[in-house]
Amino acid sequence: MPQIISVANQKGGVGKTTTTINLAAGLVRSGAKVLLVDLDPQGNASTGLGIDPSDRNKTTYDLLIEHDPVEQIIKPTRTENLYICPANADLASADIEMVAHEKRSFLLHDALRQPAMQDLHFDFVLIDCPPSLSLLTVNALVASNSVLVPLQTEFFALEGLSQLMLTIREVRQSANAALRIEGVVLTMHDARNRLSQQVEADARKTLGDLVFKTVIPRNVRLSEAPSFAQSVLDYDPSSKGAEAYWALSQEILRRHPIV
Amino acid sequence: MPQIISVANQKGGVGKTTTTINLAAGLVRSGAKVLLVDLDPQGNASTGLGIDPSDRNKTTYDLLIEHDPVEQIIKPTRTENLYICPANADLASADIEMVAHEKRSFLLHDALRQPAMQDLHFDFVLIDCPPSLSLLTVNALVASNSVLVPLQTEFFALEGLSQLMLTIREVRQSANAALRIEGVVLTMHDARNRLSQQVEADARKTLGDLVFKTVIPRNVRLSEAPSFAQSVLDYDPSSKGAEAYWALSQEILRRHPIV
Ligand SMILES: Nc1ncnc2c1ncn2[C@@H]1O[C@H](COP(=O)(O)OP(=O)(O)OP(=O)(O)O)[C@@H](O)[C@H]1O
Ligand SMILES: Nc1ncnc2c1ncn2[C@@H]1O[C@H](COP(=O)(O)OP(=O)(O)OP(=O)(O)O)[C@@H](O)[C@H]1O
Ligand SMILES: [Mg+2]
Ligand SMILES: [Mg+2]
After folding, report:
1. Which of A89, A213, B104, B139 has the fewest CB atoms within 10 Å, counting from its CB?
2. Could you give the CA distance from residue A160 to residue B66 in angstroms, rounded to a whole number?
């Protein structure tokens, strides 16, 4: 059974997609086999990994709503051992369509536990969540072993954290008792900026060990890489952004060694 | 009747809230009376304008779902002539609760056209939308005369634009024939950065005059201001961020002079 990790935060633009893509790249470089599930109707993770919009006739929508077999939806990416379940705007209607479904919170949970998934031998499944606490994100939390929370070191970012923690607790009580917090990773950090330093200090004070040691700096190479459909590890391996996501992947692997 | 403008883009973290707060501040400094409707369950606009979380017993949720009178929900802010309809996490359930309502797309439209609104003599209503194309954002588009789209000059930001334009067209055809695009404002622009320059060039080529002349630069004073519950115009009037949002408000006022 792979370790299933949701990358979630309802605050927009905090680095969820960037973290999912580059953490996945770090894990596969260390010998893991990884599935990235794009659960955002924007489909940014699919684009960032080079899946052309015309090449997404089967998406996460089909996995959730049409119950298509997972091996018909999963695609290889240009990075060896990194596979993706792509997304496009079809997924936007899934939220409303799932409301009427009696197992609405468990659709992704069940889809990722089809017998065929065992044969694919993934070590990790990373789920890139949309910027909301809608049914799509709830599905991700119910399906996961743990949640990784990117936290931008900006003022508005801290505000949403308590709401997210509340939702995680609700999911743990109602649908997934084993759901843990993998950790909080500080993103777009600018060590010279007073506000960034203050948010980092606040986060470490209130969240303690939940905060990863690795801090992701603001680094332009991270925002350039997806326009070349590459992870930053492939695009510019010596950049500060690549080094940081490599370090984050090693922190994760120390907790969840590849067997 | 006030000019009702939605500030919308389903891409997260592109500067919707920052634009709504600071454009509103520029408009009131020019003599307008403005209502800001916080339509995001995160409540960032409410926090950025100093409405304490404990002071939000009546919110936009009550306007939409409980049909409370608008004058019971609207609050003054520390900025003279700037009023707010605050939001909190209650609004997150509105999306699901509205699905069953027969006039689900028109709830905000009707709420902003109550007779009491005439007596309040607002010149502008600005609606801060959440990062999704859910029923909340559809309600904003149906209620509005026009849509202002903040566009971050980053790679992922351009990708979502066609989806947003599609949704605007659908709303125009099905519910609000008069809905226009007020314009696209480039945000967090870094003139030294190649990607930023490229995205600006692409945006002006494909969108032409829809793109405002004013470009909002990346400016740390913009991210600091909300932590002091101030607009950037009050926090640091001589900053590049304040100058840019002042210029944007003047572009808007040239099109919609205060009568
Ligand atoms: N550490 C970083 N340094 C510089 N730019 C970054 C960094 N992390 C992310 N970015 C850029 O910031 C923008 C937002 O990041 P990203 O899209 O990953 O956030 P998100 O949380 O997935 O957004 P959404 O809420 O829309 O899903 C993107 O343009 C991305 O390239
Ligand atoms: N021009 C700018 N320069 C520097 N920082 C900015 C600028 N505009 C916005 N910010 C900061 O970037 C972050 C994202 O901006 P903001 O919250 O306004 O975006 P949003 O689109 O409203 O996000 P969401 O999708 O979560 O609603 C905030 O921390 C904000 O303070
Ligand atoms: Mg994303
Ligand atoms: Mg916002």
Report:
1. A213
2. 25
